[in-house]
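Bumping with the actual sequence this time:
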Amino acid sequence: MAKQSNNSTPTIKGFIYQFLVALGKCFQLQEGETVYVETFGDISVLREGNSEQIESKFYKNDLTDTDHNVWKTLNNWLKDEFPLDSFSSLVLLTTQKVKSTNVWFGWNDKNIANKLITLKGVADKYSRKKSNKDPKTEKLLKSVLDESKLERLKIVLQKFVIDNNALNDVQCYNSIKEIYAKTIPTIRQDEFIRSMLGYVVTPKTINNNWAITYEEFTKEVNILAQSLIDTTTQFPSKVKLQNIKHEEYHENEFVNKIREIEYEDAVLDAISDYVQTKELIIKEIVTSKKISESLGEYEESVNKRHGVEYRKACRNCSSDEQKILHSQNFYDGMMASEEGTFHIYNSVPRYFHNGMLHLLAEENKDFIWLLKLKI
């Protein structure tokens, strides 16, 4: 289905990009510092002696000589109501690329005089155009280079840098996750970043002058991180695995033990549970010392339960004719059973319980399904 002509996705993506940049700056805060959103501009970082004003732009096209992203930004900073003296640096952060032939190429290495020459050169060239002039662009260039604003413009140019070819929205999100969610279990990292992004744009934050202090942000991070790592009562979400190659596990020991009881129908489910459980342990559980310790206790409990049920099943198996049937019944009974609690979770999913049985069967030669005859 084709998108409508009034599709507002690009505008929305621009806002989301701004909030992602703000979130990244929040994670960088030090004691006593504050991030402001939509107060003096897109994003402001106020700190003692080195405050920073950032205008974020999410665009795909290359930066041009008369690009409004540059000239509008300059014009806004030249307005009397903008607290220019409060900021040590003024940054245009844009996803746009700057070609080597463009006037903005090498901008940050220029001194104030050369920056002025560059701006005037763009304006002079544009004024000499015979056609296809944009009245808005003309007005913008004249406003920035108005003689009455020259001294203020020099101060702006001293502080103004262009951070072009910046990370796009997806790259920015992934970078924040990679840097600031390392202590969070892998499969919970997206939840962590999404929640902190939600904190940045929550009505409570916005109503508080959209100011986010180091102290408030750090408190929120610690509360959320702790809940995701150790204090949630909801079992971790199942790792989404597609196209499990069951044939790669056909020679595994836990599969061989199922085949010992001639139960081929159970093999596919067993492999799926085994793979899902092992993946969850690697990505989620081993990242937390407390949960890893609980895993050891849970594994021991499952192992003991198997031993008790195995001895019980063997007592009811008195002939070779019954051995395979009773072994299959024993297997199904164990797969249908529940093994208490794990860590502080209210319940353990069936696939994880059964996957743990298969992990034990894989690692322990004495953990078997084939019953011994009652003597």
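The tokens above came from a reply further down the thread. The longest strand covers residues 52-57.
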